[in-house]
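@channel sequence for tomorrow's demo:
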Amino acid sequence: MIDSVWLVDGEYAAPYRPYGESIELLSGSDRVVFFDGIDAIASAGPTGIPAAIRVPSNAVGMITEMSISGSQASGTATTLTVNDQLGTDSVRVVHAMVSNRPTIVEYTVPLAPATDLVQGGSNVLWSMAGASGLNLVTYSVRLKAWVYRL
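structure tokens (generated this afternoon):
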């Protein structure tokens, strides 16, 4: 009996557990950007999934790619944060560590049941901090896959 397998699309690999959950890997054109910008003045967010994005009714999570860079990141705390608001370990932070070099991280982010959704059809909130007159920050959060309950 097979306990789990790996799905691979050339760029991304994900565990799949039969009879529990499935993963829909999205093609490049379907990988929408939830939160992005270039900012030299202030922080951004918190913001959730845009209202125009339809969250599938049986989605229990999503795989996102979070990217951040800053022109003065090595001397200024430059962060991109995701808060899934689902418990004590709900906040995860991506730090831009080296000036002018992006930090890119993939996170599997859980979604609350439909009865608990708060903003934009999701419990998830992203924010960016660290932009200032000298620190030009470029950031983005891109959807790569939906995780479904079977």
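heads up for whoever presents: The first strand starts at residue 5 and ends at 8.
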